[in-house]
Design brief:
The chain is mainly α. The protein has a single domain, classed as nmb1532 protein domain like (Four Helix Bundle (Hemerythrin (Met), subunit A), Up-down Bundle). It is 85% helix and 0% strand. This is Hemerythrin domain-containing protein. It comes from Parachitinimonas caeni. InterPro entries: Hemerythrin-like.
Length: 150
């Protein structure tokens, strides 16, 4: 059986790859491609966050009673990253390389730190707490993530 750790870590990697592609397009001055790829990255990241916030976090909180613990921290970090992505999108729209790369650098640091916390702490906690429900939860998560390709 797949684990939450494995599935969500793979999705982190997919989001990271889209982010790198958008940043590469910006560095090459291909703003049309950058805007397209940035939009795809934003959609993928949004779906990832929603899968956590709407499916995994609530179930984990219900089973563990931890509502002000790691999931609260992750939600706050999601909000901060959404704000940076908004600024990134604005920089791509205005074709400002310095602004785009500045926001990209900030976002990269946030994502790296955030992903490490999820992958090394929260997801393993979820694997243990939600073990009996993993298959059903991952089916719901995959449905949520599939929205991005629709």
């Amino acid at each position: 059986m797949n684990t939450i750790s494995y599935s969500m870590t793979c999705d982190h990697k997919a989001c990271d790859d889209q982010f790198v592609a958008a940043e590469t397009a910006a560095r090459h001055g291909d703003w049309q491609l950058c805007r397209k790829l940035s939009g795809q990255f934003e959609q993928a990241l949004s779906q990832h966050f929603l899968a956590e916030e709407d499916i995994l976090f609530p179930r984990f909180e219900t089973l563990t009673g931890m509502t002000q613990g790691p999931t609260a921290v992750m939600r706050a970090e999601h909000a901060a990253m959404r704000d940076i992505v908004f600024s990134l999108r604005h920089a791509a729209a205005s074709e400002s390389l310095d602004d785009f790369l500045g926001h990209a650098d900030t976002l990269l640091v946030y994502m790296q730190q955030h992903n490490l916390k999820e992958e090394n702490m929260l997801y393993p906690m979820m694997d243990r707490a939600l073990h009996a429900e993993t298959g059903a939860l991952l089916d719901l998560v995959q449905q949520q993530l599939a929205v991005q390709s629709a």
